[in-house]
Amino acid sequence: TGGTMTGELEGVSGAGMTRAAMVTKIAGGFVPLNGVTYLLDGRLYLGKTSSTLLPNLDGLVPAVDWTPQHFGDINGTTDSATIQAMWDAATLGQSILFPPDINYGINATISAPVSYKTITAYGARFNLTVDGPAFDLNPAADPLNIASTAQNYGYWYGGQFNSTLASPTATAALKFLAIRQMTVKDIIVGSTTGKMTRGLFIGGLGGHDIENNRFIYTSTAIYCPYFGAGVSGTITTSVFKNNQFLFDPASSQQAFFVACGFNRWNIIGGFVNGTSAESFHFTNRNAASVLNIQGVGFEQATAGGKFLFVEDTHSLELDSLNIDRC
7 pLDDT exceeds 60? Predict the structure, then answer.
């Protein structure tokens, strides 16, 4: 027991063997040894007696980070089922890795509860053919019962999201409703040829840390619709830092569209290139008190473009709007 198995199976070399070859071996009766580490297609698996976690790989589990490739082949076009199988099997706090320089075809929205999970996707490319979010990080979110359907403390790092649709109307990279303290850093949303409808779709609760993201030709980069009344429906104490928004000069786009409650928001640094109508739109429909905008650069504004639109339709609760060094 223990160790890495590299020479006991036909077809195994110093670089291991393919996943497909191991599938064939297991179908032929081979039983992986408990506690032995196997290297398949460059990824580590651990022998675990009686496990049926992985499709067609009975007796094996991911050894370290989970990847979609542990659960099946990735073809770059219709990979949602494989990614969904990985997510459905993931436990609370699971570390998930999307290996770099690979195209993942998102042909259906992934139901991806995110509580305590860390997702690393640097260098991965998510190509959407579904006209909806790539990942719904809290599919159970209920605007009438936010507190009891909430997810907590998710972390997403890296990845590029593009749409292959000619005229998308509802695409988004990440949708997170009723989540406390979501961190999103270093993602790229859209391109000049793969436009997205939305970047981040956010509603309810708060404490978010959104940093160093780049939104290219995205219709609405940060989209926060009305989602639930009262304190729970207010997005509170969130930081948006050093994000970049590149607008298509041929169409009207927004960095922020916020139509809910917002409280103690800090938008710091970064820039908007191609300022269009209402680059930052804030409508308070719930409860709001403090909005701070500091050090944001606005350049190459289009004719008639607006930096900021703010209105209060709730009860005149917006008591502090601070704009500094923009």
Answer: no
Give me the count of residues in the chain: 326
DSSP letters, 136-160, are: ES-TT--TTSTGGG-EEEEEEE--E
- CA-to-CA distance for 137 and 95, rounded, in angstroms? 15
Reduce the DSSP state of residue 207 to 3 states and report it. Answer: coil
The answer to whether 85 and 55 are in contact (CB under 8 A) is yes
Token pair for 278:
């209402």
pTM score, two decimals? 0.91
Residue that the structure tokens 């509802």 belong to: 170
Residue 245's beta-bridge partner residues?
215, 272
Give per-residue burial for 301-322: e unless 16+ CB within 10 Å, then b.
bbeebebbeeeeebeeebeeee
Question: Which residues have a Cβ under 8 Å from the Cβ of 260 and sit 6 or more positions away?
Answer: 203, 204, 224, 225, 226, 227, 233, 234, 235, 285, 286
Q: Which residues contact 91 (CB under 8 A, 6 or more apart)?
A: none
How far apart CA 203 and CA 177 sit, in angstroms, is: 5
Say which residue the tokens 């930052």 belong to: 280
> What tokens appear for 164 in the block?
């292959």
Helix (H) or strand (E) holding 298: strand 297-299
Amino acid identity at 144: L
DSSP states of 65-91: SB-GGGTS---SSS-HHHHHHHHHHPP
pLDDT digits (tens, 9 = 90+) for 127-159: 999 999 999 999 999 998 998 999 999 999 999
pLDDT digits (tens, 9 = 90+) for 78-93: 999 999 999 999 887 8
